[in-house]
Amino acid sequence: MREVLFVAGETSGDLHAAGVSAELRRRMPALSLTGTGGARMADAGVVLLEHAERMAVMGFVEVVRHVPHHYRLLAEIRRRLEGGRVAVVVLVDYPGFNMKVAAAAHAAGVPVLYYITPQVWAWGANRLSTMARTVTRAAVILPFEEALLRSHGIDATFVGHPLLDYAQHLPTHEEARAQLGLPAQGPVLALFPGSRPQEVVRHLGRFVNTARTLEQRVPGLHVIVSAAPGIEFGADRCPYPVVRAAPFTIWRAATAALTKSGTSTLEAAVAGCPLVIGYRASNATYAIARRVVRIPRIGLVNVVAERQVAPEFIQGALEPGAVAEALEPLLREGSRERETMCCGLAEVRAKLGQPGAAARVAEIVLELAQ
User: 208 falls in which pLDDT band (50, 70, 90)?
Assistant: First the structure.
């Protein structure tokens, strides 16, 4: 069989594509897998054409600076598609680039599976008509996406959220703390400033100042900071222990967390960890987003719940005193705010489907490839 070409452009896409790659390897060990991605995909047997670290950008303005590099990479992928060696292309998130790859694959007669589709329910609804023309199948991970895409002529299947695959054997609260060398008792605050350098630059200082404020209010508070691969924190910027363990271990160890928006908010729901969401973009990106984003909340945990489960502090509202005020009751076991949020997080987890997303996507890949 010809090769399966994956295109993932950041840390989360690397993780989810690696899960599918591992499933494909298990079913067909000799299958050729190539693509763009990171270390997890390489470990799963994917021959990388480009590393995700060079592709991970965000924001309307920031993406412009990477156009020349993306243009060269797209040209290389187009040559590969037109050369006849690709049986199916699997696009994973990363819509600004992957929508162009979808068009190139369609033009070359190569079937396209889009796994973790563009968030057209938030902005960019004009992409729906393009997807209907260029995407052969769509594997969606949020429960409301299947009906939305199908209503626009896209063959979409809800496969469940891949986070559930990685969370089938979560450590207990006590096990997680022991693994991280944390005390068995007492409040622990986890900070998740982001997996991209731009996010860390904009969030870390405010997150650290929030933690310092809480240290004055919450006796015995321990603070830890989650660091994504390739992200370094200088001691002058981060006075707290930096943890590079699996995120779910950190979520399970923490009493509460402060996190940027995105998939990390769903990780919190799956792990059952109360959270507050903080997010800042560049001023130019934020100004554009206010004009094009159509949803009232940006945290995925709130989007899935269709209501506010976790407080959001966006742009100028990300002020340490206000954020600390929201976090403080979540750090107290048995507080009304904590119990209410835990119930909301359980509802969100139930909406995310059942484990097995990677296996379901692998089945679709093989159908298209054969």
Answer: very high
pLDDT digits (tens, 9 = 90+) for 121-145: 777 788 999 999 999 999 999 999 9
pLDDT at 59: 44
Q: Which two tokens stand for residue 187?
A: 């409040």
Rounded distance between C-alpha atoms, residue 370 and residue 368, angstroms: 6
Bigger pLDDT: 231 or 173?
Answer: 173
Q: How far apart are alpha carbons 72 and 345 in whole angstroms? A: 43
Q: Where are the alpha helices (DSSP H) in 162-239?
A: 163-166, 173-180, 197-215
What confidence tens digit (pLDDT) does each residue in 80-96 have?
999 999 999 999 999 99
Q: Which residue has the higher pLDDT, 59 or 323?
A: 323
Q: Could you identify the residue written with the tokens 């992957």?
A: 98
The answer on pLDDT for 205 being more than 80 is yes
Amino acid identity at 240: Y
Task: Work out whether the CA dihedral 193, 251, 239, 278 comes out positive or negative.
Answer: positive
Element (H, E) at 264: helix 263-271
What's the Cα-to-Cα distance from 81 to each of 4, 66, 107, 269, 364, rounded to whole Å?
Answer: 11, 22, 9, 39, 19
- Note the pLDDT tens digit of each residue in 56-68: 554 444 454 556 6
Q: Is 37 helix (H, G, I), strand (E, B) or coil?
A: strand
CA of residue 196 relative to chain centroid, distance: 11
pLDDT value at residue 370: 85
Cβ-contact 352, 266 below 8 angstroms:
yes
**DSSP conformational letter for 170:** P
Tokens representing residue 76 in the block: 């290389």
Q: What are phi and psi of 163, to 5 degrees?
A: -60, -30
Sequence-separated contacts (24+) of 118-124 with Cβ below 8 Å: 119/95, 120/148, 120/149, 121/145, 121/148, 121/294, 121/295, 121/303, 122/293, 122/294, 122/295, 122/298, 122/303, 123/289, 123/292, 123/293, 123/294, 124/95, 124/292
Backbone φ and ψ of 277, nearest 5°: -105, 130
